[in-house]
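Below: protein 1.
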Amino acid sequence: MSLPHDWVLTASLVTGAYLIGSIPFAVVISKLFGLADPRSYGSGNPGATNVLRSGNKAAALLTLIGDAAKGWFAVWLAAGWVHEPITLACVTLAVFLGHLFPLFLGFKGGKGVATAFGVLLAIQPIMALLTAIAWIATLVIFRFSSLAAIVSAVLAPVIYVVAGQYIWQATLPMSLAISVMGALLLYRHRANITRLLQGTEPRVGSKKDAK
């Protein structure tokens, strides 16, 4: 494992990635659309799913795109400057942690599903596609948004490592970064996991979910 040769550049990229990840698109877009702060209703989560509970699909879609785009942009930008696996892995975690613990929202952010997808898209588009297919398939079959996220979080590092032996060259730092990201996604969905086990998790489209 090669260490970054330019610590100033590395620190700048990691810090920049964290700040990019901290941009609260759910809150910003809700304000632009004249909607209530997404932290004040539903799950209280500043993310696209909760913005959708406002009934404004356009705002929810833009939030989804914004959260995914910032994950993609931070990794893409770093990849244009450096090629050390450990630096790119640190940037990957930084932008994701920025969304989970944003500086601009008192370190209380979203669950990170869309941002994680954007990160995967920047790392390997094929991996992002396979993970998205798993997410969609789980959602269509079981109609649990949380379960789809959980399944994707578990499969993403597996896909990266396994397919990395045939389609791309997987690196240890990025394997660890994606695994940590998956573990954090599971942690952020711990309440959902409890409800799934108890049979009280609302399905997508249900009246309870709408509330």
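Below: protein 2.
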Amino acid sequence: MKYIDIHSHLNLPEYDADREEVIERLHESKTATIVVGTDFETSQIALDLAESHDDIYACIGVHPVDNVTKVFELDKFETLVGHPKVVAIGECGLDYFHADKSDQTEIERQQTLFIAQIHFAMKYDKPIMIHSRGAYEELLALLEPLVAEYGDRLRGNVHFFAGNLEVAKRFWKIGFTTSFTGVITFARDYDEVIKNAPMDMIMSETDAPFVAPVPYRGKRNEPSYVQEVVKKIAEIRGEDETEVREALLSNAERLFGINLA
């Protein structure tokens, strides 16, 4: 493999018409991807795709707000988690971007859902794929004490990181990597974080079909476009692109327990 997109949604309907063509471009570009579930059904599709393709892996879990009626059905997810292509739990976390923080019922619902998936990940020794909007402080307040309990077994990645350097350092300190999307190809908001990040604590992703990078901005995104993210990370850091690309592959191998040779 040359590239790794650690967070995509090839399991969504946006790819129903041409999913195999998108996957063929993934193969041709020597890109691997982790397809991420947002509920049991999309987690099952993610695993189905992973079973059918050597360069696709699955992440299984329940998103905090995509469908607020969804709960974490332990018995169902236990039918998936033992498969060797399941490499992480999520995407799970907290999303207060549109939530009324005075709505204690909603806050407790999200926190209960998140904690259930943390415990599930610990039971099966898997990293977690974190989704967070408008809730980094609250999320860290939950994670930091749990790291004291679980040690380095509690690990994961904060996907689509959109915080500042101070917040990023708190995640890195407790062993959580941060990943960046195509947004970095057209916005300068995260340059400071990328420049100052330890090279072993960052990841590349697309979040496809969303936020396509330049030069594909405005189009549907896909995993093969992650190479534009990798190029931009190297440019921002002022480092050799090949070395950055290889480091990002190594980071994914370490966290998710996969072999990208």
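Strands lie at 3-8, 31-36, 56-60, 86-95, 128-133, 156-158, 176-180, 202-204.
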